[in-house]
Structure formats: structure tokens, C-alpha cells
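A reminder before we start the practical. When you read a complex entry, don't treat the lines as separate problems. The point of joint prediction is that each chain is placed relative to the others, so the output describes one connected object in space. Small molecules and nucleic acid strands, if listed, are placed in the same frame. In the example below there are two entries. Take a minute to note the order of the lines before looking further.
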Amino acid sequence: MNFKPFYPPVRTLMGPGPSDVHPRVLSAMARPTIGHLDPAFVSMMDEVKMMLQQAMLTSNPLTMPVSAPGSAGMETCFANLIEPGDKVVVCQNGVFGGRMKENVERMGGVPILISDDWGRAVDPDKVEAALRAHPGVKALAFVHAETSTGACSDVNTLTRLARHYDCLSIVDAVTSLGGIELRVDDWQIDAVYSGSQKCLSCPPGLSPVSFSERAVAAIKSRRSRIPSWFLDLTLVMGYWGSGAKRTYHHTAPVNTLYGLHEALVMLHEEGLEQAWRRHRHYHRALRAGLEAMGLRFVVPETERLPQLNAIHIPEGIDDVTVRGLLLQDYQLEIGAGLGVMAGKVWRIGLMGQACNRRNVLLCLAALEDVLSRVQARIERGGAIPAALVALGQAG
Amino acid sequence: MNFKPFYPPVRTLMGPGPSDVHPRVLSAMARPTIGHLDPAFVSMMDEVKMMLQQAMLTSNPLTMPVSAPGSAGMETCFANLIEPGDKVVVCQNGVFGGRMKENVERMGGVPILISDDWGRAVDPDKVEAALRAHPGVKALAFVHAETSTGACSDVNTLTRLARHYDCLSIVDAVTSLGGIELRVDDWQIDAVYSGSQKCLSCPPGLSPVSFSERAVAAIKSRRSRIPSWFLDLTLVMGYWGSGAKRTYHHTAPVNTLYGLHEALVMLHEEGLEQAWRRHRHYHRALRAGLEAMGLRFVVPETERLPQLNAIHIPEGIDDVTVRGLLLQDYQLEIGAGLGVMAGKVWRIGLMGQACNRRNVLLCLAALEDVLSRVQARIERGGAIPAALVALGQAG
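Here is the predicted structure of the whole assembly.
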């Protein structure tokens, strides 16, 4: 077997993430690797922490990127905060609420599940009823921006309930950070995790997290050991903490951190609120075009995320064929439906660098062309080429 | 606060890893990001798996890179194989054996610790005595190439003992893969983990792992749930498994995998045995030079790793000053001592791309110059500049 260098196709990434990565960030990824304890690297880490605090609107000292993708950031929150027997109210309105429930169970916690329809925001009334019915809940866990459906939940209302019932809040901000309003301090979020590959437009591989003083106190007063060495924050902080001397814990993903640093510099240059405005602006443009084509959104307008647009697949149209043609003819990736929505919806991402005028127009034009060709083929009774089915596995 | 792009200094990395990354690999890191379910990406994943199997000399189907650094690879092995109450014989002859013991404890297992002197190989006689004394041990865990001391243990003898006493073997090959002989199938290793940033010369962030049929059977017959969702191999395999259709588990670190792919192509081009020979060859050259300077190795010759050369810091010489000057004047990073060896030894890496004639000569010349200047300063009674102390924190 002969192996050769891999040159990826140049796609436009309008799925649920990874999103398009700017050439500045790609070029940062290729800068020379240096030691993970090099003084120059340690200074860069300090800047990453400061810029993450700004992007999350928090002054939490325990703010840093976990050295692994978003699901490891989720696990960092649950592994450090939840102990065997702890009751956790988990809100499920899509795939990622379900993953939170899994995390609670893996830590030996007891999930109390609140279900909302997929495509809807978390209902605060149900949450309050659950918190009232179950005294002594340790934490309330929910997803801010549900990537599987495109629904946005009201963080501030939910964290206020958490405080009222004296429990911690754990918030999934994987798809919200950098794309929509997220105010960790103002909303008094206790633990929050995100991902590098959504609205921050980095390659995947890092999960920014932040913990409030209350959360840190909970970690320090644990009764049991954290069932992970790699994610144990009391150890990780020796490396990511303050001061000139950093203690070796694990080897940080040096070049991916170069990428995150550059992406955060770019966010800093644009301004956080301007980035939020840009996401709203191009979402409106995309929405106008999609609705003009007769496509319907999954999520009611007031609960919709600008950066993740889930639309119903029109009656009679095959999911895989359309996504295969978009990839083949336009190098355009849009997302498939996840879980109960597989085959029924498409998810069009407008995240970070992918959220721009050119992409909106490309997506609308490509979708219109492909849908009309698929429609014409259906009318002729033609079959779907196998190659397209293979391509359509993406997303 | 004004944030600017970060341009790292161009170092020569002769510490314990990360090692020098070849420009081909850096440039692969900067190729356009594509979706983690894109058919083009899935083909590349298949090649990464095949090349890892070749580099590890295994036909284990469950061979792949974990999406996080080496310590997460270690945790993947212990989290999947060790259940509460399981007895594990853990060999400690340096820092990383100690970390294995921590992992066993975090999983609720019962470590049976075998200690050898730091700087020596694991003693098979002690291991056999422990296995004889403790019937029903679930696994024997040890480090092949101890990065903290430079000692090489005899994997084949140790795994033979594991089989004889009917227990699984878990082998840390973080620093051995690609640098010295490692034969996963011939030596019948059950679980092995490595790192991307040592002799494979990739940026850190991935941990290649491989599991034998026996290990897979042990995972499938677990009595308890794996206390990690992110590292649960029964789920991860849905994404890294065979066949055209991959199931979304987590978002893989796309660009870091481009880097690993390119590094494995380069290893494939050179040939695995030639890479082993190259490591031995330049180790001998470095050794000759170091000994000519009167420097003494920590590890006896027959137990020495070629890729990690631990030497005693000469009497009266300050560790931090020397490493600070090497970094300042030569952009050369060598490693500090870890744990009980901090301040007492230096660790000079000759790993992967860093293992070449130019680096050997640079290291010897730089060390000779710096040592003679430090010696002269001591004789004059001069103080150490603070800037050097800061630089010397690296490694």
C-alpha cells in the first residue's frame, strides 16, 4: 500500500460545525511548534485566557480551553461538579441535552429529565416545577444553543431559577459563544463549556470552559475523587493557572492553541457585539431567501438561533441526494438532521467566518439549483446515483 | 488591552516532547478544514488507521488516535478496561508509572505497586513475584519508554508474564512509537497508547491507541458502565469503525489529524526499521559527545533509550541558568528533570524529526559553550540574571 499526502477538497462549511476557518487561523496553525512550558508559549496562554474571558464576558479566573473537543469540555463540567448520588435537573430539547443526561449518569449522578419538543426552547415553567418538586438538586443543566435543532433557550431566566433553588447552573454554550449574546457574569452561570469549531471558527480540538467562584467552591468541597485524571481541574489549573511557574500536567495541543489565539484576536478586532450583529444580519438575509423558496423553519421565530438554521426537507425530496449534489457540484456542506430529525431536516450553519454575504448567496443559489434538478429527476422517475449517496453521508 | 497575532520563536526542540515538527507536517496542519463526516475526511481517517497499524506492527482493528493528548490515551485504556475492584499490577520506575497508578485509583481499581529505581528498567522478577502473590489480577501496566528518566523496559518479557498469569497488559508507548522497536502483535500487547508529539513528530493533541481482541472482549463483558462518555470506546468506534457510514460521536480535531496523516506518510516513506536505526545512530553520536564533555548518563547502557537521554547535571551547575542560556542564545530547548529528578538531570530528546546530525552537533556545541560560560561565572562569583531564570522555566 502506497500512502501519499492528503490534500483536502476546499469546501464551504455551512453545517453544524466545523465552520469555515479563516486563512489567518489556518496559517497560525502552521507556525513552528514550541514547548508547552516555553516562556513564550506561557505568555500566549495568558492572552488566550484573557481573550476568552472577554469573549465570555466573565472575570472568572478559572477560564481556559480544555485540550480536547467540546464533548470533553462537557465532561469536564460534569466530572468535576457532579458526584455519585447528586441530583441534576437536565433539560432535553435536542441531542445535546441527552448527552448531558448521559454525563450525569456516568458520574453516578441522578438525572431528573425535563423534556421539551425538539425545535423548541427549554420551558422555564417546567424547570421551576421540577426544582420545586425535587429539593436538594445539585445542578441545573441545559443547552443555550441546541445545535441539533437551532433552538435558543433563555439562559438568564434559567440561571435565575437555579440560584433561587440554590443549585449550580451548567450551560452548554458550544454553538453560542461568539455568535449570540452570552454573558457569563451578568447571567451568573456557574459552569459553561464551548467549542473552538463553531462561531469562533477554529479547527476543532479545544473546548473553552469557565467556572464561577461558587463552582470552584463546589469542586474544592467534593466528598469523592474526580473519576478522571485528565479532566481533573484541580490538576489542570497547575498548568493553566496564574504566575510565571506552570506545572506540567498534560502536553497542551500547541498548534491548535495558536489557531484559537488567532481566532480570538480576530474576534477582538471585530468586536464581540459586532460579531453578534453580523450573525443576526446574515441570518435575516438567509431566512428571507429560504422562505422565498418556500422552505419552512423548524424553530418558531422568537426561539431561533441565527447561526444554526434548521429547515424542513420538502415533501418527497431525498435528504442524501441533495446534500450529495451540494457537496459534489458546489463543494458546499450543509448539515443533516440528528437523532429523531435525521432525514427530515437540514441544518444550515452561519457560524463565525462562515457567516458572510458570499456564503448566504452561494447557499441559496446552490440549494435552489439542486432542488430544482432533483425535482425534475423525480418527475422523470430517475434513480439516484450511488456516488451521490456516498457524498451525502457528510454533514 | 490590545491583542496581536502570536509569532512563536523558532526553537530546536530537544526536550521530552513536543519534538521538532517537519515543515511538511506544519503545512498539512494549515490545509483547509473540512467536515469531520466529509467522505474525503473519512477516507483520510482510514489511511491514518492503516498507517498506525503499520507503525505499531499490529493488525488490531481497534487502532486509532484518541482526539486528545497522550494522557487521555492513557485514560482511555484504564477507563475502558479497569472496573471498580479490579486488581492491577502497576510498575513504577518514573513519573508515568505513577500516573498509571492514579488512573487505576480513579477508576476504582486496586493498584498493586511494583517500584524500581528511577532510571532503571522494570524488573520482571518483581513483576512475576507480584503476579504470583496476587491471584486474579486483571491487568499488568507498565511504561515501555519512561520519558521522565530515559529507561527502556523489556515489553516482550513483561507481556509474556501477563499472559502466563492470565491478565491483560497495558503498555505506555508514548515515547517509544516510531523511535524504537515496538511490536504490538508479536509481543501480544493488549492495550497500548502513544502520543503524536514524540517520535512521530506531530504537534501534540492526539494519542494513538490499539487494543487486542482480548482487550475488546474485556470491554464488551464489563459489569459496570465506563465512567466517561468521551472516552467510551464502544461509542468512539461508531465513528472510527469500518464501513462507509460513520456515526457522529464527537467532533474530531480535523487539522491535527491532517498533521498526523502527513507525519505517518513520512514515517512510511522512511521505513519503520530505518527510523529505529536512525534513532540508535544519532543517540550514539550524542552519547560520544556528551561523554567526551564528562557528562554522565542516568540510565545504565543496556537499559537506555536512544530518543531520551537523561544526564546528571554536573556538581555546582544551576539547572535553570543553563537551560535559560540554551534557550536565549541558541533557541534550543532541552528538558528539565521531572519529579524526584527535578534540578538534578537534563533530558535531551532525539525524537522523530529532531533526531538528526545537525541537532546532535548543535546540542553538543551549545551545551559546551554554555557550561563553560556558567563555570567561568561561578568562578567569578557572579549572580544569575532574572531573565535567564524566567527562560529556564521551559522544558
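Discuss with your neighbour: The domain at 272-391 of chain A is CATH 3.90.1150.10 (Aspartate Aminotransferase, domain 1). What might explain this?
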